[in-house]
Amino acid sequence: MTGVLTTLWLAVLLxxxxxxVGGLVLPPPQAVAAGLAAGAVAAVLxxxxxxxxGLVALLGSFRAVLPVLALRHLAGMAGIDILPFTTVxxxxxxxxxxxFLAAATTALPANVYRLGYAPWPVAGMVLAVCAYGMxxxxxxxxxxxxxxxxxxxxxxGSSNWFDxxxxxxxxxxxxxxxxxxLLSL
Length: 185
Prior knowledge:
Number of domains: 2
Order of helices and strands: HHHHHHHHH
Shape: globular
Distance between the termini: 46 Å
Structural class: mainly alpha
Largest sheet: none
Radius of gyration: 17 Å
Helix content: over 70%
Strand content: under 5%
Number of strands: 0
């Protein structure tokens, strides 16, 4: 099952990259369609090549956050209205996540990461994230939280819920988005 999900995960990420490149020469909806088709074909046909194995090794094992984020961006490219994250949300996430990473690596005395192994704290965090998403009118954050919990409960991928809903690549991505917003003021 993990192999199938990893192939789907890889197909979505490839579709996202290929749609971005295709968007340089095609209108966004056509770039998304071409990216999805090419990503699916590449993930199935070239899954065992050194390049795609390297991509999986670089980005880590199957997680919920990256493909859901990529699908969110692809939907926006296809013309679907997507509620953007506010600058305050992104800044708060970046600060909190950097502290979380520092604590998880024992650079700080508190280790919140260990809570990702326990059912009750995970359930509480998922409910809190869903309530926040409902209050904001956003489907993305609750979708990541619930998908991560589903994979975590099913034993697919990591045994820690945080590994499903967070990824270290979110730090530079968030920083770049915040920098772009700052420069466009």
